[in-house]
Design brief:
This protein is an alpha/beta fold. It has a single domain (3-172, 246-323), classed as Alpha/Beta hydrolase fold, catalytic domain (Rossmann fold), CATH 3.40.50.1820. The protein contains 13 helices and eight strands. Helix 6 (144-155) links the parallel strand 5 and strand 6 (162-166). Helix 1 (8-15) packs across helix 13 and helix 4 (108-124) crosses helix 6 (144-155).
Length: 324
């Protein structure tokens, strides 16, 4: 196959726009704006969905499960990195962007259950419905989606072949999340009443973009309450309860190959989170790569186009190397 015989230089040229038409297939590129939507799970009256880009029934193509960010509190499957997705589609990969139930209405154990069920649906239903090769599935995501990507490395069964975590985190109990945050406290303080009025009680997986749920997140960061509100447990009083929900505590030699991407000036998720995860992967002998984006903030804000292009290309190369 031509695609499998490409050198790293060929792939980099293709991913950055050089000789795309000649080097790699671009099947279905004109249809990227209209994904196929499926319900992968129902909880009560709530349908939890995923969008599949590039579905090709009858084929047998690699797939990447994309997980959106939003602190597990906001966002939806429509929040997908178009830039990174484009690189995956150049490689002719199928991309499945998933929803999951959000906190605080749904607590962390059930959010992880949704993650496992989404991975299971892609593996079991994806081959027949979408043309996915069940043996070649990667997981990628940003911010909280990066956290869930790292969670998939030991909670999904079977494990994904490869992971790509953009500015994610491996520990949800350390001070950055469990104590009041100086950066966020520079903004006007959100009251408990305002925070609680911005969320509800019924499970939700696909809130409106202008739902105001970000006020609840801001309140959590200002007061150091994120673990308590999202998990329903206090890391100060129950530190061991969080063991199954901290990827850094669950890395073994069987953990999937992983690429981490993080900006050094991130004021939302500390750069040290990816540093610490990389160190743990190294200690366990797990193949990994750590891409540092100098001066970039959360979401790689403030990075140059060359920096973001390089980060996305390196992530796509890493995924391809393990799905070939």
């Amino acid at each position: 196959m031509t695609q499998l015989s490409l050198t790293r230089r060929d792939l980099a040229r293709a991913l950055t726009g050089g000789a795309i038409g000649a080097a790699l297939p671009r099947r279905g590129a004109a249809k990227e704006s209209a994904p196929d939507t499926y319900t992968y799970k129902k909880v009560g009256g709530l349908e939890i969905k995923l969008d599949v880009y590039g579905a090709s029934p009858g084929a047998r193509r690699p797939a990447v499960i994309w997980i959106h960010g939003g602190a597990l509190i906001q966002g939806s499957r429509k929040r997908i990195s178009r830039r990174f997705q484009a690189k995956l589609r150049v490689l002719d990969y199928i991309v499945a962007s998933i929803d999951y139930r959000l906190a605080p209405e749904t607590k962390l154990p059930e959010i992880i259950a949704d993650l496992r069920d989404a991975c299971r649906w892609v593996r079991e239903q994806g081959p027949q419905r979408c043309g996915i090769d069940a043996e070649r599935i990667a997981v990628a995501g940003s911010s909280a989606g990066g956290y869930l990507t790292l969670m998939a490395g030991f909670t999904a069964a079977p494990r994904p072949r490869v992971l790509a975590a953009f500015y994610g985190y491996g520990d949800i109990t350390t001070p950055w999340y469990s104590e009041p945050d100086d950066f966020y406290r520079k903004q006007p303080l959100v009251t408990r009443e305002e925070a609680e009025s911005s969320v509800g009680t019924a499970p939700v997986s696909e809130p409106p973009e202008q739902s105001g749920r970000g006020r609840f997140y801001l309140y959590c960061r200002q007061q150091g309450l994120w673990p308590l509100k999202v998990a329903g447990h206090d890391p100060q009083k129950e530190p061991r309860w969080f063991d199954p929900y901290c990827p850094i505590r669950n890395v073994t030699a069987q953990y999937p190959p992983t690429i981490l991407i993080h900006g050094t000036a991130d004021t939302d998720v500390p750069y040290s989170e990816s540093q610490n995860m990389a160190a743990r992967l190294k200690a366990a002998g797990v193949e990994h790569e750590f891409i540092t984006v100098l001066g970039a903030g959360h979401g790689l804000s403030g990075a140059t186009s060359e920096q973001t292009e390089n980060a996305d290309t390196r992530a796509a190369e890493f995924i391809r190397a393990h799905l070939a």
